Amino acid sequence: MASSQVSPSSPTSPSPPSSSSPSSASSPPSPPNTAFRKLRGARSPGEFAAAVRRAAREIGEQVSCDARYIGRVESGQIRCPNYAYERVFRHMFPGCEPADMGFAPRDVVRGRGARRTTGEPPTESGRSLDSLKESDVLRRAFMTGGTAAIATAASLGASLGLAASAGVATAAPRAPRRAGEAEASAVEQAVRRIRLLDDRHGADGIYRRAAGPLRVAYELLDADTRRQSVADRLHAGAGELAISVGWLAHDSGRFADARSHYAEALATARVAGDAALEAHAFCNTAFLARDAGRPREAVRAAQAAQRAGRQLPSSRLMALLTLREAGGWAGLGDRAACEAALLHARTLFERGAADADPEWMTFFGEAELEGLEAQCWSALGDWTRAAEHARRAVDLQNAHFARNIALFTAQLAGDLARGGAPDEAAATGERALDLLAEVQSTRVRTMLDATARLLRGRRWGRGDRAVAAFLDRHALTAQGV
After folding, report:
1. Within this chain, do residues 165 and 193 fall inside the same structural domain, yes or no?
2. For 173-226, how does the pLDDT look when each residue is reduced to its tens digit (9 = 90+)?
3. Among 26, 61, 198, 288, which is 20 to 30 Å from 53 by CA?
4. To 5 degrees, how large is the angle CA 367–CA 405–CA 116?
5. Whole-model pTM?
6. Does residue 152 share a domain with residue 78?
7. Positive or negative, the Cα torsion across 79, 83, 85, 87?
8. Helices and strands (H, E) in the chain, number of each type
9. Which residues, in sequence order, are bridge partners of residue 128?
10. At what angle are helices 442-456 and 465-478 packed, to 10 degrees?
11. Is 91 within 8 Å of 57 (Cβ atoms)?
12. What's the rounded Cα separation, in Å, for the pair 102 and 90?
């Protein structure tokens, strides 16, 4: 929805109920959030809450916003919104960062050891109850769907149903014989939810649960459709869902499964004559080939992706595809070809975003550009340059992409360890272990395992306490303690 005009502050909204928790009694109250109050304008808290719920539906989020929540934000009781609310507020007020809306940084409010001022006690593990509840709600949102489109598309909704989340073994019903706008929307929504959960929590916890929606999506391709536009959306949606599920397999170390899903998406793209889907499928195939130790295949797949991508007026897409090619050249040890591809990718990236940029590329910003370049220098053995770019990737990454923050932090730890900075590598590795409390990614854990092996293989003296602390903690984490 379009953002409303900011107007002068009007009478104060209803005060939220007071908290009787010990933390709220011992901590000074936070100041009122006047910036957020101005964003509400002349609307009542109830009217503004309704606008928040409408905006959430527009982007496929689920929030239970009411006047009481708005009051808690404006009074300062909620110092930082959870990820779902943050995404909705960014949608409502384009160009506004959380700080512009009067919110405190998430790492200050919810970081390890942060003082609680919201009346919300920390859990034994150091994570807030709000954080735990959010994780649970997000995972259940994937299983239950929650949008009107999924509710009306009964078969796909059933594949995302409560029975699976409760651990009940039930066979998902077959897709309907006729498919329309509701079914196409349901498939598209399933793709968005998988991507959202992966951004925040990693792939390990949701890969198996994504198989049901994918099967039903492909069954929908055989359903009768009255409009070509619906058939096109179903093909594009099924292909994107195959790529998303393939990525979940990829990130959780199931390379054979990932290869199969990417091939399925590529076949769907060829059948439908969908250049955008073909470019995406080849892009992920190149990424997988690089990770699987097949760098020449990575180069060829990335070049095929570029041939398809040239049909779309998106410089950012071509920048990413060129970075995939650079990764392949780095794996082959061809420094000159890699450097040329990196330079070309930056030139394309600097042309800026465009309306034609694919929806799935929301993750591709400056942080991702830096992170992918770090991986190239790492593959070429230039640890100093790799660490420099990995550090930028961590610093620039949006908090929404929790998995990528964990990934690039682990990348940085490995580059520092290989570059002869064991203490800094250990400290960085500890930060990555902190992030794995929320992110489930076999890929990230594998990177930290390699860093631990590097640090364990060298001798350290009594002053290398940071290394010893990281190795001890890593060993306990590996044992599930």
Report:
1. yes
2. 455 577 788 888 888 888 887 777 765 655 556 777 777 788 888 888 887 888
3. 198
4. 125
5. 0.63
6. no
7. positive
8. 24, 0
9. 122
10. 140
11. no
12. 13
Residue 45 located in a structural domain: yes
Amino acid of residue 162: L
Distance CA 148, CA 205 (A): 25
Averaged pLDDT, 436-446: 81
User: In a 3-state reduction of DSSP, which class is residue 309?
Assistant: helix
User: Does 264 share its domain with 207?
Assistant: yes
pLDDT in tens, 50-70: 899 888 887 767 677 888 889
- In whole angstroms, what is the distance from residue 62 CA to residue 51 CA? 13
What is the C-alpha separation between 226 and 7, in angstroms, rounded? 48
Residues 6+ apart with CB under 8 A from 95: none
How far apart CA 435 and CA 477 sit, in angstroms, is: 12
Contacts of residues 470-473 at CB distance under 8 Å and 24 or more positions apart, as own/partner, are 470/425, 470/426, 470/427, 470/429, 470/430, 470/433, 471/426, 473/430, 473/433
Give the separation between CA 247 and CA 225, rounded to whole angstroms.
29
d(CA 164, CA 140): 10
Is 7 among the domain residues? no
pLDDT of amino acid 155:
36
Q: For residue 327, how many C-alpha atoms fall within 13 Å in the half-sphere facing its CB?
A: 30
144, 248: one domain: yes
Higher pLDDT, 60 or 113: 60
The Cα–Cα gap between 76 and 196 comes to 27
Query: For residues 346 and 298, is the Cβ–Cβ distance under 8 A?
Result: no
Q: Which domain holds residue 98?
A: 22-116
Q: Say how far apart CA 242 and CA 269 lie, in whole Å.
A: 11
First to last CA, the chain: 46
Residue 17 lies in a domain: no
Tokens representing residue 420 in the block: 């002869």
Both 380 and 478 in one domain: the answer is yes
User: CA separation (Å) from 196 to 116, 190, 201?
Assistant: 27, 10, 9
pLDDT at residue 198 in the model: 64
pLDDT for the residue numbered 463: 52
Whether residue 125 is contained in a domain is answered as no
CA dihedral over 226, 229, 231, 237, signed as positive or negative: negative
What's the domain count of the chain?
4
Among the residue ranges 99-113, 198-212, 358-372, the one predicted with the least confidence is 198-212
Phi, psi of 178 (to 5 degrees): -125, 135
150, two tokens: 């999924």
Distances (CA, A) of 24 to 16, 79, 120, 149: 13, 13, 8, 41
Q: What is the pLDDT of residue 435?
A: 85
Q: Rounded distance, CA 292 to CA 143, Å?
A: 30
User: How many residues appear in the chain?
Assistant: 481
- Within 145-227, where are the H helices? 148-152, 154-159, 162-165, 181-201, 211-220
Tell whether 136 and 217 lie within a shared domain.
Answer: yes
**Amino acid code (one letter) for 18:** S
